[in-house]
Structure formats: structure tokens, C-alpha cells
């Protein structure tokens, strides 16, 4: 670990002054001790004991550098004091004077590593492997140190730069060093089971929006839709909601190729319609996986459970001005970034 | 005696005299009243009127609220107030043409010889002008329908229309010695075109020179908005609605004037009014229109005449069937609700719908249900279910839960009535009507397969009312 390397370095510097007995002081966590006391003394308190949160095993054990004993450093006879007059010990890192040097150690070791591998060829950021770095909160809990956001982001810059090294030339030590800052679960780790078309030709898709959840069964047909046993017009009074419900089919020009059976529960009318959007899109992807890019352009395969979206301008379309297309981020009716979505047939 | 002078002056002060009067010479002073030292007189006097607007004046430049009528800053509403009934008239107004819509050149009219022909299937056909007048007279057009969007009334001859045309044909053909009486109830989803289908049946009947009697809205018969009277010598007790019947007679007269004029009275009806010998049916009906007291006997006499041999078939129609399948809003002498079937007009219709009475010259009894304006009628719902199961030859015909209350009279009437299910349009029909919309200029889009399918799907699998909404009405 980096900070250990650093403390070792300091210790080596001190050792050069003289052999010292290595006394290690184990720092235990103050908060944990305090909360333990508190829970014992306050018998009427209803708050739960929060020690478990802080003593979780995600935190690292930390050993501070031992203090330099100048009296012993020179080997007796008051030589140490004399030496001090001629020698000024400058620690390699400013964290020597801080209470908790872990972050600085991490940062220094990463920059040192980057300096070493800086000449290796790199690839553009967009082509670099996708990595989910630890959030600042996760890092703070791991190190038990109040790391400032700006400093953490500086460290992230270094990490991203390291991540851009050409994968074929990536040194193992860099891989090992980056491992410490990655989340436990990386994107792409969890792969959903591929959908199947059952013996009756149905494909199932599940969608949620706000508090609504929908299941859609898609079979090949000629554009009929039954939602909870009712026709689209009976179930959704608003034309916009009807269009939302079958938007995935409409955006890919498949409305006359499939029949939809939808079951939708919870939430309001619009939420149900937009939950169906997602469900139908997912069911359609089972039938035709190649439609994924088209559906991405049509914005119907991204789950959005949030009820609120920052206001942004509405996009109107000359051909059907009353229809507002979903936004780029999710299937809400607002569009971010203010572009127009052009849906083209993949075929 | 300076003290007495001082006292007098003091008393004068207490009476609120001016200093001038006090200083006047003694001889000029009026004789003082006995209680000159009292202070009660000024106290008992009316208090000085309070000054208005005692609150501090608003600061210069501050705006104050002024809600006074006619005051400065309040615009006088000079617009004309609607006369009584004007708003309702506006609401119920029937507009059958739109000058801004294009004339559809390819539109053919229905005509008498080919009115019931099958070649119209899936086509949009215009309604001839005289038929439009008759339909308007019998209130077959409803305000919420989309007639006002197009140049002139035209309808799509859909599958169910052809089914009705076939039934009309059956009723016209002489089968043995008696002609058939067709009884049907139109059922279907909301906005699926039940009322329009009824209108198409009426139009075909008008074209084929039938006598058409249409009860345009069942709710109007039973909601107790018109007067009612006990029918003398009726058993069980029945009630006539003279004003309503008189109005109905005038509608019948207006719509069927040409046919009624050709027929003369052959029976000898007993009427409260004198009738000319050899009078035509038109004159008979006019009798009932002019004197509403005689309207019900005239209606009975008219029906008697129309069921004589050699007379044209009759189309008897009603919209909003559920309203007459329960108690009416009328009250009997005992303040008990009057069942709708105890109203003479309703009973007349219901007897023919139930098949208790038949039309000897053939004809059709047609009732349309409503999904947007209908009271809950378990009997009607159940009967429709049974009829549908019977028609589709299902094994398990639903049976009524004996522990539930039901209107027995309604159940009895609807026991063996057949239904015509008005569903969604097929895609070909949808295409025909969308093309008509486009040719009328009300729809500006390229009508192709994809467009038709999309609208058909969004309209809930071809629901025609929804189709009109999504293509024509919701266009911005």
C-alpha cells in the first residue's frame, strides 16, 4: 500500500540517523469508541448504535510513522542535539505533518506511477475501458479521512489518465494500483439473461416508471393492443398516452407487425403509459435485438424511475406537432439539450 | 354680583353658544331654559355623522383596489347577455356542413334502388338532401358527431351497415303472407358508431320509403321534463305524455310527409276531435300536432292505420335504450316511481322490441345503447351478454345470479332480443374513411399503409369515433 511505502521511507530516513526501537502505535477509531460509551451510558436513547458503520471492514488499518527520537538517533552522548543543529529533516511528503496521510500518500504514489509510465502510448478517453471509480464518499469511508472534493478529483484525473494507457501495454503494476480505486462492481459485470420467445411466440418485457410497473407480451400480429384487457383507446383517454404506450413500435415502424398484451399496475395514467413504453421496447428487443440502436434514438430503452426532471425546452415536430418526443436521457416528455430526435428505420 | 354673571356665561358655554352670542348685551339674550346647566341636550342630540373615508389617504403614487361597479378603471361589460335558452340552443345546434371543407368529387350518393346493395360495402357514401332533411326532422343527427367537419353528410358503409341493409331487405321481402319484423339492439364500445349506425338504418329506411318513427333520445321520455297524464281506462295504469307525443307526431309528419300524404284513413278511429271523411294520414297526424290533448289517440290511430295491409314497412327506432329499462322520474298519485314501461310511448316501443306485437307489413325495431350516457342497467347488460353468447353459439350461456335484484320487466323485454355488435373498423374500412377525410381537406397527411395502421392502432383497433379524433379533430 502506498502510504505504507511512504511511512517506510520516512522510517528509513530516521533510521539513517540511528537505530531506533520501532514502536507501533495502533490507532483505533475515536468515533467508534465514543459511540460505544454513549450507548452504554444513555439507557433511554432510542438511537441505534452506529459503531458498526464505522468499523466496517472496508476501512483500512492505519499505522502512523513512529516519532523520531533524536536523543537516541546519534547513539547517545547528546550527539543528537548537536546533529539537529546541523541537520534539518524534511519529510518527502507534506502529509508527514498531517493527522492522516493516507490520501496524500495515495496521490503521491499515483503521480509517481504516472511519471514512470507517462511515455506509454495512450488511447482516447472514449475508447478507454469503462471503469466505475469509487465515489468520494466511498473513498472517504475507506480511508476514514475527510478528503476534499477538489483533491479527490485531481486524483481521479490521474487515474483516468492511467486508464488511458493502451490496454495491450498496460503494466501490471498500474492495473494493481488502479484496483484500489475501482468500485467492487464494474459496468458490464452483471449481464441480464437474454430474453426468450416462448412456444406461443411471445416475448416478455418489463418496464417501470415512477410508481407504475408494466409487463408487456409481444407477439407477431397486425397492430392490436390490449392493456389490462381493454383496447388502447379505452384504457388511455389521452392520445399522447396511447402514443407513449406503443412508442417503441411506432418509432421503429413495427406498429403493424406486432400485437401487444400489456399488464400495468400502480401509479397514474401517464406513468403507466411510460412504463409500457419501456416494457414494449424490451419485449421488442427480444424479437429483434438489432433494433437496439433505433430504440436508443427513439429513447425508449432507458429506465427512468424519477418523477422530476429539470425544466428544459420542449421540442416540437413539424410532422406531428402535438406529439412531444421523450427526452434523450429518459422517456420523459422533456428534451434535454434541445436537439431534434430523428428516428430512422434500421431496415 | 359677578358670580351670577360668570355662572350665566358658563351655562351659555355649556349650551354651545358662540362667543359672539355670549358677548352680546344682556337684553338680547333669549330667556334661558330652566335646566340651563344640563349637558344632556347636546349629548342626546344625534351624533354627528362620521366622516367617510376616515382611513388615511393612500400615498401618492400607490395603487388602490377599486372594486366599485361602474367606477373609474372598471371596464363596463357591455356584451349582450344570452337570451333564455340561447346557450342551450347553441349547444344542441346541429351543423351539417362546413364550407371550408373541400367537396369530395368521387363521393356518390345513396339512392333508392341501390340503397341496400352490397356494392357499397367499405365505401363512403353521401346522404341525399331530402333524406338529410328527414333525418334532421327525426333528430337522428346528434350534436357531438362530426358532421360539421365536412362539406355535406356522408357515411361509411361498414360491415354492420351491410348487415342492417340485409335485414332491411329481409323485412321488405314478402315471406309467405306475413312480412318479417326485425328486432335488434346495437351494442358496442363508446364512440364505436352505434348512433351513426342507427342513423344509417334510418337513412336506408327513408330511401326505401318506409315510415320512420324515431325516438331520438330515451332519456327525454323518462326524465320527467314533460307533462304526463293518466291514460283513462288503462289497466295496468299507464301514463300518456301529451306534449312529447305531440312533438313526436310533428317530427313524424315532417319526416314522412310525402308518404303520409299518399295514404288515406281507412279505419274509423275514435278521436276526441272531428276528422274529415277520406282524410289522409297527414291530416290525421296534423290533428294530433295541433291539439296535444289528442296526440296519444292520434298516435294510436296512426299506428292502427300503418298496420293495415298494403302499407309500407315501419322503422321504429330509439337511442339510449338503458334509460327505459328502469323506473322513470315520474311519480304516480301515491308518489311511487312510475316504471318506464308504464309510459304509453315506451310501452309501445318495448312491446315491439320484445316481440309481443309485430309489424304486419314488415319493418324493423331498432334500439341503440349508449356508453357515454346510460344509467347502470344490470338487466340490459346481462341480456346483451346472453344474446352475444347465444349468437356465438357458446356452450355456457351466462345465467342470472338469483340473489341479485334485477328489473324483471326489463329482463322480460330483453329476453330473446338479438344484438348487433358494433366493433372497430377493419383496416380497409379505416383506409376508406381516412381517404375521405384527406379528400375533404380535413386531414393533411400522406395516406399510406403505415399511416392507416398507426391511426387504426391508436384509435383502439379501429374505433371509428376515436379514428376521427386522432386523424381529424386532434389536428393542431
Can you describe what's shown?
The complex is a heterodimer of chains A (347) and B (476). Chain A has 14 helices and five strands. Chain A has helices at residues 2-17, 30-41, 51-54, 70-73, 79-86, 102-117, 136-143, 149-163, 172-179, 232-235, 239-245, 247-251, 269-287, 292-298; strands spanning 203-209, 212-220, 225-227, 230-231, 258-265. A five-stranded mixed beta sheet of chain A has the order 1-2-5-3-4. In chain A, helix 1 (2-17) crosses helix 6, helix 6 runs parallel beside helix 8 and helix 11 (239-245) runs parallel beside helix 13. With 476 residues, chain B is α/β, with parallel strands linked by helices. Among the domains of chain B are: 122-140 and 159-422, no CATH class; 427-473, no CATH class. Chain B is built from 18 helices and twelve strands. In chain B, helix 5 (129-137) crosses helix 7, helix 5 runs antiparallel to helix 9 (242-255) and helix 11 runs antiparallel to helix 12 (295-306). The longest helix of chain B has 14 residues, at 159-172. Chains A and B meet through helix 10 and helix 11 of A and helix 17 and helix 18 of B.
Amino acid at each position: 500500500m502506498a502510504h505504507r511505502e511512504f511511512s517506510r521511507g520516512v522510517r528509513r530516513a530516521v533510521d539513517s540517523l540511528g537505530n531506533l526501537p520501532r514502536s507501533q502505535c495502533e490507532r483505533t477509531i475515536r468515533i467508534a469508541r465514543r459511540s460505544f460509551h454513549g450507548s452504554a451510558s444513555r439507557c433511554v436513547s432510542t438511537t441505534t448504535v452506529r459503531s458498526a458503520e464505522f468499523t466496517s471492514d472496508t476501512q483500512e488499518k492505519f499505522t502512523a510513522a513512529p516519532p523520531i527520537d533524536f536523543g537516541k538517533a546519534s547513539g547517545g552522548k547528546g550527539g543528537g542535539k548537536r546533529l539537529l543543529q546541523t541537520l534539518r529533516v524534511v519529510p518527502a511528503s507534506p502529509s508527514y505533518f498531517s493527522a492522516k496521510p493516507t490520501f496524500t500518500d495515495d496521490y503521491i504514489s499515483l503521480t509517481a506511477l504516472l511519471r514512470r509510465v507517462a511515455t506509454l502510448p495512450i488511447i482516447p478517453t472514449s475508447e478507454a475501458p469503462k471503469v466505475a471509480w469509487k465515489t468520494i464518499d466511498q473513498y472517504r469511508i475507506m480511508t476514514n479521512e475527510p478528503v476534499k472534493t477538489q483533491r479527490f478529483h485531481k486524483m481521479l484525473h490521474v487515474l483516468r489518465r492511467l486508464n488511458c494507457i493502451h490496454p495491450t501495454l498496460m503494466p501490471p503494476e498500474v492495473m494493481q494500483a488502479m484496483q484500489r480505486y475501482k468500485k467492487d462492481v464494474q459496468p458490464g459485470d452483471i449481464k441480464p439473461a437474454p430474453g426468450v420467445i416462448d412456444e406461443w411466440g411471445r416475448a416478455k418485457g418489463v418496464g417501470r416508471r415512477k410508481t407504475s410497473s408494466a409487463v408487456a407480451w409481444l407477439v407477431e400480429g397486425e397492430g392490436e393492443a390490449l392493456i389490462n384487457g381493454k383496447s388502447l383507446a379505452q384504457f388511455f383517454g389521452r392520445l399522447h398516452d396511447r402514443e407513449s404506450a406503443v412508442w417503441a413500435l411506432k418509432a421503429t415502424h413495427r406498429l403493424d407487425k406486432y400485437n401487444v398484451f400489456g399488464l400495468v399496475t400502480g401509479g397514474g395514467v401517464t406513468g403507466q403509459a411510460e412504463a409500457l413504453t419501456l416494457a414494449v421496447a424490451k419485449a421488442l428487443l427480444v424479437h429483434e435485438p438489432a433494433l437496439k440502436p433505433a430504440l436508443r434514438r427513439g429513447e425508449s430503452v432507458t429506465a427512468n424511475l424519477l418523477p422530476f426532471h429539470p425544466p428544459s425546452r420542449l421540442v416540437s415536430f413539424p410532422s406531428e406537432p402535438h406529439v412531444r418526443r421523450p427526452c434523450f436521457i429518459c422517456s420523459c416528455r422533456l428534451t434535454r439539450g434541445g436537439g431534434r430526435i430523428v428516428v430512422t428505420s434500421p431496415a | 354680583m359677578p358670580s351670577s354673571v360668570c355662572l350665566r356665561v358658563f351655562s351659555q358655554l355649556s349650551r354651545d353658544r358662540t362667543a359672539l352670542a355670549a358677548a352680546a348685551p344682556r337684553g338680547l339674550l333669549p330667556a334661558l331654559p330652566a335646566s340651563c346647566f344640563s349637558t344632556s341636550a347636546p349629548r342626546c342630540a344625534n351624533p354627528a355623522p362620521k366622516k367617510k373615508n376616515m382611513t388615511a389617504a393612500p400615498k401618492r403614487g400607490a395603487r388602490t383596489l377599486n372594486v366599485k361597479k361602474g367606477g373609474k378603471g372598471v371596464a363596463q361589460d357591455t356584451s349582450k347577455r344570452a337570451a333564455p335558452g340561447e346557450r342551450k340552443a347553441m349547444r344542441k345546434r346541429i351543423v351539417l356542413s362546413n364550407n371550408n371543407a373541400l367537396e369530395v368529387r368521387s363521393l356518390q350518393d345513396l339512392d333508392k334502388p341501390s340503397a341496400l346493395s352490397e356494392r357499397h360495402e367499405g365505401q363512403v357514401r353521401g346522404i341525399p338532401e331530402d333524406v338529410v332533411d328527414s333525418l334532421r326532422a327525426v333528430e337522428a343527427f346528434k350534436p357531438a358527431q362530426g358532421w360539421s367537419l365536412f362539406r355535406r353528410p356522408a357515411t361509411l358503409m361498414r360491415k354492420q351497415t351491410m348487415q342492417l341493409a340485409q335485414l332491411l331487405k329481409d323485412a321488405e321481402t314478402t315471406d309467405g303472407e306475413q312480412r318479417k319484423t326485425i328486432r335488434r339492439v346495437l351494442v358496442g364500445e363508446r364512440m364505436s358508431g352505434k348512433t351513426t349506425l342507427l342513423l344509417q338504418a334510418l337513412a336506408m329506411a327513408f330511401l326505401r320509403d318506409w315510415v320512420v318513427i324515431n325516438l331520438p333520445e330515451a332519456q327525454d321520455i323518462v326524465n320527467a321534463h314533460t307533462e304526463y297524464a293518466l291514460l283513462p281506462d288503462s289497466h295496468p295504469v299507464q301514463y300518456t305524455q301529451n306534449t312529447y307525443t305531440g312533438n313526436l307526431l310533428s317530427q313524424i309528419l315532417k319526416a314522412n310527409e310525402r308518404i303520409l300524404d299518399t295514404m288515406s284513413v281507412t279505419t274509423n278511429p275514435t278521436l276526441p276531435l272531428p276528422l274529415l271523411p277520406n282524410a289522409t294520414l297527414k291530416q290525421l297526424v296534423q290533428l294530433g300536432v295541433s291539439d296535444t290533448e289528442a296526440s296519444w289517440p292520434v298516435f294510436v290511430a296512426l299506428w292502427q292505420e300503418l298496420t293495415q295491409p298494403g302499407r309500407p314497412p315501419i322503422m321504429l327506432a330509439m337511442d339510449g335504450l338503458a334509460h327505459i329499462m328502469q323506473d322513470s322520474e315520474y311519480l304516480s298519485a301515491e308518489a311511487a316511481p312510475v316504471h318506464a314501461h308504464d309510459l304509453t310511448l315506451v310501452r309501445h316501443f318495448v312491446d315491439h322490441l320484445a316481440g309481443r306485437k309485430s309489424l304486419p307489413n314488415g319493418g324493423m325495431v331498432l334500439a341503440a345503447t349508449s356508453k357515454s350516457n346510460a344509467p347502470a342497467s344490470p338487466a340490459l347488460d346481462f341480456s346483451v351478454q346472453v344474446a352475444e353468447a347465444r349468437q356465438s353459439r357458446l356452450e355456457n350461456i351466462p345465467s342470472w345470479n338469483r340473489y341479485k335484484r334485477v328489473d324483471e320487466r326489463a329482463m322480460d323485454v330483453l329476453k330473446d332480443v338479438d344484438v348487433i355488435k358494433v366493433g372497430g373498423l377493419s383496416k380497409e374500412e379505416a383506409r376508406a374513411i381516412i381517404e375521405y377525410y384527406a379528400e375533404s381537406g380535413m386531414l393533411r397527411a400522406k395516406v399510406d399503409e403505415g399511416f392507416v395502421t398507426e391511426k387504426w392502432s391508436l384509435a383502439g383497433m379501429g374505433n371509428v369515433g376515436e379514428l376521427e379524433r386522432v386523424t381529424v379533430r386532434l389536428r393542431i
